């Protein structure tokens, strides 16, 4: 069943974990780390030894997923399996889902024994495709939790931020408020900056504002969404400059996922305008708010459907080259921006 990220975390503080967690629209790894730590905390509270394994749900590696789900009990530990690349669930996935994968999920939902494994499925796909029967079964099951990564309200962001900041008595209340704003009110980025601050403090009981200014870049000035907006709008030079300002927050796969999503949106806008689809229907199809259409339509005016399709193929090729070891992450993304600069 669908639950908010905050509700999923809150539930794990008092209840045992669900059989399956589906974390979709993931572009910041903090959300996965936070969910996994909450699950393992719940297992520790229940005095349940566990064995965590990370595998892929890609079609050519389903045997690894099956093996991982059965491994934990061999050693008396409960198997906690985190499976990435669960892209079959998304609306953008057009291929046929293997029967083997459907059988794995159906079997997981039916298991009720005390030592049944736990499964965390992860995808960058923006939303589940509930037109598929097996996806509908997954989202309807009380034994599953379907969660959108991110999409936090301002209040939820504030609560998670305050939770992270509780362990930093060296920071004043004013400095904590400054940090939340400085990191663009993004919880994942705040968590990463706090790790840097913890290392810097090394036992000190306070930190000056000038030291904080030097340690923490201003993520309000440039974030990954700005990089995507500039890149898709054809402003290659500005996009690369914004990318360089990201500092250590350069998640290659997160950026590739956001670029892919944006080009898909723009392509759908181009197709919808050609087919004279109304704005209301288009918002319903894409799952967007009406105010988000204007910027997408502005971007659609600078691109053709053929150009969008070409960029999507390029991004897919880059991801494949990284995953197969043909290119390092940094090299691949630099090449992407180099091509944009040549076209600028």
UniProtKB/TrEMBL annotation:
Catalytic reactions of this protein: DNA(n) + a 2'-deoxyribonucleoside 5'-triphosphate = DNA(n+1) + diphosphate
Enzyme Commission number(s) from the entry: 2.7.7.7
Gene3D superfamilies: 1.20.272.10, P-loop containing nucleotide triphosphate hydrolases
Top-level EC class: transferase
GO terms for MF: DNA binding; DNA-directed DNA polymerase activity
One Pfam family recorded for the sequence: DNA_pol3_delta_C
GO terms under biological process: DNA-templated DNA replication
Boundaries of every DNA polymerase III delta subunit-like C-terminal domain copy: 222-338
Keywords: DNA replication, DNA-directed DNA polymerase, Nucleotidyltransferase, Transferase
One GO location term (cellular component): DNA polymerase III complex
Organism superkingdom: Bacteria
Family annotation (InterPro entries): DNA_pol3_clamp-load_cplx_C, DNA_pol3_delta-like_C, DNA_polIII_delta, P-loop_NTPase
PANTHER family per the UniProt record, alphabetical: DNA POLYMERASE III SUBUNIT DELTA (PTHR34388)
Family affiliation: Belongs to the DNA polymerase HolA subunit family.
Protein name: DNA-directed DNA polymerase
